[in-house]
Amino acid sequence: MRILIIGPSWVGDSVMGQTLYRRLKDEEPNCIIDVISPQWSLPLMKRMPEVSKTIASPYLHGDIKPLSRYKFGKNLRTSLYDRSIILTNSLKSSLIPFFANIPIRTGWLGEMRFGLLNDIRYLKKESNHLMVEKFAALSIQKHNYSFESLSFPRLDIDIDNQKEQLNKLNLNSDLPCLAICPGAEFGPSKQWPAEYFSKVAREYVNKGWNVICFGSKNDSLTGKRLETANNLVNEDKFINLIGLTSLLDVVDLLAYCKRVVTNDSGLMHIAAAVKTPLVALYGPSSPEYTPPLIDKKIILRKVEGYEKIRKGDTIEGYHHSLLSIQPSEVLRALEIL
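The chain above was modelled as a monomer; its predicted structure follows.
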């Protein structure tokens, strides 16, 4: 069986998608899984042994381009896919499998996708579902997708690349390493303040740990604030790699670290998928929907429910609940892990 997955746009969702791929392999061990995904998340698929082939989506967020999608889908007809699973809810995301003439097209109804999908799935309304449960429920079998039955993401580690990256950093390998991931999509509303992260970093540098900061180029300003707040710039044991590494390098380096402190972000899900114990800081988003999928974790949160917001409610843009989490609480959580 050949299966085409229309993957999510965000890094965290892409990681969680591996739960579905593992479930598919359990159901059909010989199935071939190909994934269409945005260019920036494709490298993650190289660390998922379930995925046979990756295909870069040429479309940006919001692009419709029906004629282009028709041509794209038509070119896929020679691959003779038996089934397609669409992990996103937009109408446009279901066009390519339809134009590719894939016989079984599975997904949620989403934006009224009658006809484009012919295997529409529905969840029981009486219960809330985690994102990974929603992904798993799109598998071949329509039952047994509860949280307890799932195989969670587990990314492969390239030990040779890990050693190469560590050599470049010239770290003292005799010292343990703490990872700090201070960024998150949509800016400060999902971020713990950089100055708070800085206090945790300073404490661990003083304890004799190496501390490495990870993030994308979008987090560069946050990284600068973090390293200057507690005079960490000239510390040999503090390394700011924000915006300076590839996604695969981050995977391998997070696997090396002994602990991670992170916002609710794509890097949180990567850290969980390489099984590094972590402290996760949540504000308006909810761990009841997208928790880190790892046993060794401590989640800190000062508010209940879920707020689909893109702006914080303070002058600096932070969410008030994240400001309420004190560095001392994070330090205690790290000691417990």
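The chain has two domains: 2-149, 159-336.
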